[in-house]
Amino acid sequence: MSATAPKPPLRVVLCAPRGFCAGVVRAVDIVERALQRYGAPVYVRHEIVHNKFVVDSLKAKGVIFIKELSEAPPGPHPVIFSAHGVTKAVPEEAKARNLFTIDATCPLVTKVHREAQVHFKRGRRIILIGHAGHPEVVGTMGQLPPGRVTLASSISDVKRLEPDDGRPIAYITQTTLSVDDTREIVAALKARFPAIYGPPNEDICYATTNRQEAVKAAARQVEAAIVVGAANSSNSQRLREVAEREGCAAQLVADERGIDWAALTNVGSVAVTAGASAPEALVERVLGALSARYDVTIETLTTTSESMIFPLPRDLREPA
Ligand code: SF4
């Protein structure tokens, strides 16, 4: 394109809701408040949320991200557990080592942990629908002794489950799954185990559900979709898949530098959304990059509004 050539038109449908959820806001606030109250360094086990921009900004303020508790020294500087939750063994190890800890696990993940414990106490076989290796899944499975939770990620996994052994059976789910895929997996579970116990509406959280609904509605109106989010963010990956299933050429980008411009050639309309761990600043950078190349008109498509707020731990409620 020459410097004087007019920019091609592009209709941008901005999804709402998008971006930060209440669990991510709370987790990031916990780290910020801990820095104010206890001073740097503050240790965070695992990425506090799955977003490099957020992690890098916190590093710049004095946060040290660690993989294992053994990397944190005892003393007045807290170790914070990420929003994804941890296995039971982690706080136990922290206690044994006299570490000062703060739990930033999202309350909606904690709710799933409690469901697992209730099913276990009632002697039920427990099936967890989720993705192997995701920290939330590791944390949820780790609420119970090894071998007591069976992971099912697909309908084929459901088919491979051991037959009914007379014990009652229950399912729980990861919070950030595809609503549509999970519905199919639950249907397969119910077909095999008609008396299976489960939560009324799966355990997929409100933020995951709302973001998927918004991108699905937008994707029906456009040719392409850009999802702002990290490659290791489960809910961001699901947004990309939902848009693709609606026939959009969808791309997941960490920020504007990741945009595949070739994929937007001859595209006249694009949906833009962001995963629950992606800050709005990155959405603005993507919109800025689109505006630099196209004559952009932006319309917001709002499918629902959100008012969820999770309170901070008591000790951190007042600013230092
Ligand atoms: Fe909590 Fe859902 Fe946000 Fe995860 S995506 S932190 S479960 S509100």
Mind sketching the topology for me?
Elements: E1 9-16, H1 22-38, E2 42-45, H2 52-60, E3 63-66, E4 79-81, H3 89-96, E5 101-103, H4 107-121, E6 125-129, H5 135-141, E7 149-152, H6 155-160, E8 169-173, H7 179-192, H8 206-219, E9 224-228, H9 234-245, E10 249-253, E11 269-274, H10 280-293, E12 295-302
Parallel strand pairs: 1-11, 1-12, 2-3, 2-4, 4-5, 6-7, 6-8, 9-10, 9-11
The structure holds iron/sulfur cluster (SF4).
Helix and strand composition category: alpha/beta
Order of helices and strands: EHEHEEHEHEHEHEHHEHEEHE
The CATH level-2 architecture of the largest domain is identified as 3-Layer(aba) Sandwich
Fraction in beta strands: 15-25%
CATH class bucket of the largest domain: Alpha Beta
Oligomer: single chain
Unreliably modeled segments: none
Strand neighbour order, sheet with most strands: 10-9-11-1-12
Superfamily at the CATH H level of the largest domain? 4-hydroxy-3-methylbut-2-enyl diphosphate reductase, catalytic domain
Bound molecules: iron/sulfur cluster
Backbone shape: flat
Q: What average pLDDT do the residues reach? A: 96
Number of helices: 10
The tally of beta strands, per DSSP, is: 12
Number of domains: 3
* CATH topology-level name of the largest domain: Cobalt-precorrin-4 Transmethylase, domain 1
Proportion of helical residues:
25-40%
